[in-house]
Design goal:
The protein is an alpha+beta fold. It has 18 helices and 31 strands. The strands form seven sheets. It has a nine-stranded antiparallel beta sheet, covered by helices on one side. Strands 7-6-12-17-16 form a five-stranded antiparallel beta sheet, with no helix packed on it. A five-stranded antiparallel beta sheet has the order 19-26-27-28-31. It binds beta-D-glucopyranose. The site of beta-D-glucopyranose (BGC) has 12 residues, from loops. Belongs to the glycosyl hydrolase 65 family. Pfam families: Glyco_hydro_65C, Glyco_hydro_65m, Glyco_hydro_65N. It comes from Oceanotoga teriensis.
Amino acid sequence: MNWNILEKNYNKDDYIKNETIFALANGFLGIRGSFDEGNIIGHDGTYINGFYELNDIKYGEKFKGYPSQGQTMVNVANTKRVNIFFDDEKFDLNTGEIIEYERNLDMREGILKREIKWRSSQGKIIRLIFERFVSFKEKGLIFYKYNIIPLNGSVKVSFESILDGGIRNYSNPDDPRVASTSETVFETIENKTLDDDLYIYQRTKRSKKEYGVYLKHRILKGDLTRKRYYSKDDSSSIIFDFNLRRNESVSIIRNAFYSLGGLNFKLFEYLKEKSEEAYENGYDYYLDYQKKYYSDFWNNCNVEIEGDDKLLQGIRFNMFHILNSTGKDGITNIAAKGLTGEGYEGHYFWDTETYILPFFIYTNPEIAKKLIEFRYNTLDKAKERALQMNHKKGALYPWRTINGYECSSYFPAGTAQYHINCDIAISIKRYFESTNDENLLVKFGAEILFETSRLWMDTGFFIDGEFRINGVTGPDEYTAIINNNYYTNIMVSESLKFSVYVYNFLKKNYNKEFIKLINKIDLMEEEVEEWINASENMFLPYDKKLQINAQDDSFLSKPVWDLEKEKNFPLLLHYHPLVLYRYQVCKQADLILAEVLLNYKFDKKQIKKDYDYYEKITTHDSSLSTCIFSIAANYIGYLEKAYNYFMMTARTDLDNHHGNTKDGIHAANMAGTWLGLTMGFGGMKVYNDNIYFEPKVPKAWKKYSFKILYKSRRIKVEVDKQYIKYSLEKGDPVNIYHFNKHILLQSSYKLKNR
Ligand code: BGC
């Protein structure tokens, strides 16, 4: 069970949520788990990572520096749709009778299967088997396979394969977490029907982005009697007619190949050729590759939990979707909802650096590197943004974006979240500490670090020798535009320190590249001295009376929101933001997040005091919160709380905890589950060029294990109530720490669990 997501009955009420659950993707292309035969209640979707349309952001009052254009990931042509008729009656699960039904997502192979026994209203009993996967071998390729067998007599089958370019995006004007309008965004350049193939080529009206898709058919089995073609402006179809006798089957494979277009690119020729190649190689060839790809992935990062199968299923499900939705080419990233839905309009946030990158750094650093490259490739736009925001120099990364330009229209919980800059910087530090990849620092990292450091020096200022940062918003979106957000200040301090380290490191070890970079960006030695000064003298708000770290300068002087009496969650859908800003109430981990990310800087006593205070005023209305509270609870020995928060995190989408899984997965939360297991229960910390573990087992589990890639070594950690075992699965012997005990890990090492 724990490698599969099984749906045993068709339930209309879960349909739209399950379109997200059963979505498939490969980082470039994503399809929702909509039924092939369609369903009036769903929201079908097909997405290409990084493919967006522009729209004007309409403000009543527009001020300087407000972004004027938004970007929305668009729903591209649908190739899933088929209409299947049995003696002219349309197959639809909302009519006739479902005798058997099973849908199965196999996470070991990345394949979705659906098997149905259905009785038409005319009494024909038919078995239908659907299979699909989005290829990891060819990023533009999707395979669909169909098997249809009449079980109680002859039947005429009409199988209509549709290529539909007339798709629109989903919208809800009352929910700020999804787009508010949906219009047709495409103009169709070509729409062709050729023998057994369909083709469409479209361009977005404003962003002028082009893509095409070519759909090919192979009839493996079946007595074809007739073919018919239909074509409209933006869609086309082929109908294949068959006569089947009882127990005879029709078997059809459709392969759809998507690609971006562009100037002077012969899209049609390219797609035709690639589709023919896919056709020749065949379904099984790509399926074998698929199995191998996932098997390698799981081999690097599989987790086990004995004693809770549903939980294990949830964790694997999360890892599966994170892998699928993440761009792996350096020019795309991972949207907050992945490639599974249109929530947050397909935008990339700090979710990437703070939650998702650590997962890849410790399991698949090549992907982590590509995500950092994305930030490098958008650095020029971040520099432009800094100028728009009246900074003299430096780079300010966008709070939400697809193409690198800021597109958040509500600046208090958008642009004001300057911490995106230090989140990116710290993720480079984390990547480097675990991989020693100097090349990344030289090629991309250093420039990002230097430009983001500059931004801080132009944002903050020294007062009485202390460096202060005013007028920003921290991670908690129920508190906005405040002075000296603790999280931001301490993360900036660490990132400035790292920038100085990288500056000296490059100067010493890569002098040629160093000089080139310094000249390119005109960096002065005095600037670096200021980074040291600011980093060392960063002001961090502390409340002496309460003996806790303060979320910001004014936070603790506000009245506390009484969450025990509150019934209207999430608060953001019930209260004007200003009301929220007047109280001590948090949407998500903020100060506690700083203590988790920079754990090596805090002692447990302080974390405990802070935790006791901030937990009471945190709503966890953001799905980015519970995993962090689980990790912090683990640090301070609140094992029951750690367990409960972890349980709330791990099945967020499978159990629809936030009620909006229909709009797409909660990608940061999914990665946060893995962080909860490794950093929380596993007590993993990486600092001072060492890796530390402090494993604990929750009462409910017999045993658990996880794997970490650290400096090209794969370390497996297994924990049960009696023993803890570390095994070196790959690479040379490595130093690790178990609590404070040093171990030179050569093959495996077993200790008593105390
Ligand atoms: C959270 C942000 C997050 C965004 C996208 C919001 O609800 O408050 O921290 O970046 O969702 O996941």
